[in-house]
Specification:
Bound molecules: 2,5-anhydro-1,6-di-O-phosphono-D-mannitol, magnesium ion
Shape: globular
Oligomer: single chain
CATH topology of the largest domain: Fructose-1,6-Bisphosphatase, Chain A, domain 1
CATH superfamily of the largest domain: Fructose-1,6-Bisphosphatase, subunit A, domain 1
Structural class: alpha+beta
Distance between the termini: 54 Å
Number of strands: 13
Number of domains: 2
Strand order of the largest sheet: 2-1-3-4-5-6-7-8
Number of helices: 9
Radius of gyration: 20 Å
Helix content: 25-40%
Length: about 325
């Protein structure tokens, strides 16, 4: 039997990869792992909401029940504030960033952006949801974090990852040296290395678009959606449509099986729906580190200079050759 490697062991073994590492980044990644386990436990109870009480109700212990995305947000904020490695956070759940001015955090090196519970509309129907995070080194020099610490290009990410709360719970992260995935063993409450050095296949047969918006897609994307349905054994077409409406789950599956995910500009959302800082940059870092491509259709996502915290961008990411084909269609038909 081979030895089980836990997330913490793995993180600490890799610490030496960072030339000036002092252990803070390792600690921060461990803190994220711990917070996600607490959230995972709560998500597992989601179906009991009618029995235990929904958002705003008071449970038997006299505690007020929180919506799960609010609960997840609070868990991460507490973990980051108490961890002492982060001087500010920005979350999809909050309008503004949150500077930490407590003694232990004020002068810390890192800021984190995160989406505590992405795809939360899926919770009510027992479908996978996820947490997404990015870690940046601060650029301001002292005190609690400032806006400029967050408005950095995705290329500046020190680490990024996601947690998928699915049929099993997994944490997948990168520090720019490949992608590794850990599955939570509920028996021992530990994340164990289950997907070392994840690589996205260059080709695949899965496409993940919300085709309900077909009429509002650009000409090139419409052509691609038509092309995937044509019969052509030499290219394995027709492809299979797979769309969960939970970005983490859609991208995770495509990373493993080979596929392309797209949330483009639509007439209702001219900049797309997904947020650059909380969703697109971290997923782009993972996808690129796994050997895939992450673009808006016109530029590399990680090279976009953010101008606001909640900025949205179109997202097209996944297997190299599949994204390449979509780009070819965009080039030809717009
Ligand atoms: P959320 O941040 O409000 O949960 O929305 C993000 C989610 C993504 O996970 C998913 O890719 C997308 O919304 C699905 O949107 P749609 O239902 O418009 O296809
Ligand atoms: Mg989201």
């Amino acid at each position: 039997m081979s030895k089980v490697v836990t997330l913490n062991e793995f993180i600490h073994d890799r610490q030496a990869d960072f030339p000036f590492a002092t252990g803070e980044l390792s600690q921060l990644l461990s803190d994220i792992g711990v917070a996600s386990k607490v959230i995972n436990k709560e998500i597992n109870k989601a179906g009991l909401v009618d029995i235990l009480g929904a958002f705003g109700n008071t449970n038997v212990q006299g505690e007020e029940q929180q919506k799960l995305d609010v609960y997840a947000d609070n868990q991460f904020i507490d973990a980051f504030r108490n961890g002492g490695e982060v001087c500010a956070i920005a979350s999809e759940e909050n309008d503004d960033y949150l500077p930490f001015d407590n003694e232990g955090s004020r002068d810390a090196k890192y800021v984190v952006t995160f989406d505590p519970l992405d795809g939360s509309s899926n919770i009510d129907v027992n479908v996978s949801v996820g947490t997404i995070f990015s870690i940046y080194r601060r650029i301001s020099t002292e005190g609690s974090g400032k806006i400029e610490d967050f408005l950095q290009k995705g290329t500046e990410q020190i680490a990024a990852g996601y947690v998928i709360y699915g049929s099993s719970t997994m944490l997948v992260y990168t520090t720019g040296k490949g992608v590794n995935g850990f599955t939570l063993d509920p028996g021992i409450g530990e994340y164990c290395l289950s997907h070392p050095d994840m690589k996205a296949p260059d080709d695949g047969r899965l496409y993940s678009f919300n085709e309900g918006n077909y009429n509002t897609f650009s000409g090139g994307l419409q052509k691609y959606c038509d092309w995937v349905k044509e019969e052509d054994p030499s290219t394995g077409r027709p492809y299979s449509a797979r769309y969960i409406a939970s970005m983490v789950a859609d991208i995770h599956r495509n990373l493993i099986k080979g596929g392309v995910f797209c949330y483009p500009a639509t007439s209702g959302s001219p900049d797309g729906k997904l947020r650059l800082l909380y969703e697109c940059n971290p997923m782009a870092f993972i996808v690129e580190q796994a050997g895939g491509i992450a673009t808006t259709g016109y530029e590399r996502i990680m090279e976009i200079q953010p101008t606001t915290l909640h900025q949205r961008v179109p997202a097209l990411m996944g297997s190299k050759n599949m994204v390449g084909k979509v780009l070819e269609m965009i080039e030809k038909y717009g």
